[in-house]
Amino acid sequence: MKPFADTLREIIAHDGPITVERYMSLCLRQYYATRDPLGAAGDFTTAPEISQMFGELIGLWLMEIWHAMGRPSPCRLIELGPGRGTLMADLLRATQVLPDFKAAAAVHLVETSPALRQRQQAALAASGFSLHWHDRLVDVPPGPVLLVANEFLDALPVRQFLATELGWCERLVGLDGERLIFGLRPEPEQGLGNPLRRGDVLEWPAASIDVMGELARRLQQDGGAALILDYGYWGPAYGDTLQALKQHAFVDPLAEPGEADLTTHVDFHRLAQAAVAGGARAHGIATQGDFLQALGIEARAASLKARATPAQGADIDQALARLTERGPTGMGELFKVLAVTDRSIESVPALPALSISS
Ligand code: SAH
To answer: Among 103, 211, 193, which Cα is nearest to 155's?
Structure first.
């Protein structure tokens, strides 16, 4: 089979330079379809892969909401981008606190990668829950929603615009001989607001905004709640956050198309705005560290340690420290948590009320 980089060069030679959004989209489809990117042997490690405590606490959060909603049955338990299925497996174990949940819930996994669907099937087969896979959120059948998405929205493509003396220009990926390079095209449709300073980069996450709009529509129609965890910030902010990770190190995003994980940082303000504009209520945001602490991660760690060997105890301490670590690059601070619910749910555990204008 032809190497993906050659296919990509042919596309650009034929169509001309492509947007960053299309570049990300083509590369990510190739990347996720051809590997399991997670864990020590892969390119990056996520919170559920660090410790079972992460999924368990999210399971308890969801059970509080399900209980407060009057225990609707049937209920759609949805995960966007479930990776190896670890978060869902840990979360389902925690739902045993409410035994009726198993009879009420069907699990819906939104996943495009055939390789990862197989991993999820293997991780979840023994759970006893009915499992369904879909390519998109819009394909999940109607019904009250409990949804979780961890490190999903960072993997969706964004457009990038650079402020120049000509106004906003869209960033493109073109060819210099065989080499991929960034370029610019003046953006005819304005409506992006006035650039503040030359050199500012504005990222436009159209795909994430669509997901939030669809989520809000479903929540408004059928009721429920969604929990979104990812690395990101509360915008508006300007900057180029496109990054590529391979074997746990940053690499040039154009160097190995389809072979490195490509992501951007998530603007939670824009996501919350899209959800509120779609008729939902937003809650948060909190840092991951504050959120997990409010849900009792320290008590959970202590109870796991009480039954652990000294070596396991040290692992639990290390996982706790990593998930809640402060500082701009610590997972506990870089990662943020946003909840989105139907309007009848006025408060959710561990996240403050959020007032936002759409
Ligand atoms: N949530 C997991 C995995 C995060 S990696 C964890 O925390 O470990 C991103 C996940 O999203 C992978 O499962 C990937 O295959 C999936 N994914 C990426 N783009 C997608 C898309 N457009 N639609 C559906 N799933 C996607």
So the answer is: 211
Give the pLDDT mean for 8-19: 97
Q: Are 295 and 350 in contact (CB under 8 A)?
A: yes
Q: Tens digits of per-residue pLDDT, 284-315?
A: 999 999 999 999 999 999 999 999 999 999 99
Listing DSSP states for 17-66 in one string gives SEEHHHHHHHHHHHHHHT---BSTTSSB--HHHH-HHHHHHHHHHHHHHH
Query: Do the domain assignments include residue 352?
Result: no
CA neighbor of 145 nearest in space, from 58, 215, 67, 59: 215
In CATH, what number is assigned to the domain containing residue 64? Answer: 3.40.50.150
Taking the whole predicted model, whether its pTM rises above 0.85 is answered as yes
Length of the chain measured in residues: 358
From the list 263, 257, 292, the residue with the least C-alpha distance to 180 is 257
Asked whether residue 21 is assigned to any structural domain, the reply reads no
C-alpha to C-alpha distances, 317 to 169, 300, 302, 309, 312, nearest whole angstrom: 48, 11, 9, 12, 9
Query: Helices 310-324 and 52-68: crossing angle, nearest 10°?
Result: 60
Residues 208 and 5: beta-carbon distance below 8 Å: no
Distance 142 CA to ligand 1 centre (A): 22
Domain-embedded: residue 133: yes
- Pocket around ligand 1 at a 6 A CB cut-off: 28, 32, 38, 46, 48-49, 81-83, 87, 110-113, 116, 150-152, 155-156
Q: Total domain count for the chain?
A: 1
pLDDT tens per residue across span 252-262: 999 999 999 99
pLDDT band at 190 (very low <50, low <70, confident <90, very high): low
* Long-range own/partner contacts, residues 236-240 (CB < 8 A, 24 or more apart): 236/267, 236/269, 236/270, 237/267, 238/163, 238/196, 238/197, 238/200, 238/201, 238/202, 239/200, 239/201, 240/160, 240/201, 240/203
Among candidates 157, 268, 274, which has minimal Cα distance to 213?
Answer: 274
Residue 295 belongs to a domain: yes
What is the extent of the structural domain holding 220? 35-158+205-341
Query: Could you tell which of 88, 112, 229 is best to mutate to test the pocket of ligand 1, judged by most ligand atoms within 8 Å of the CB?
Result: 112
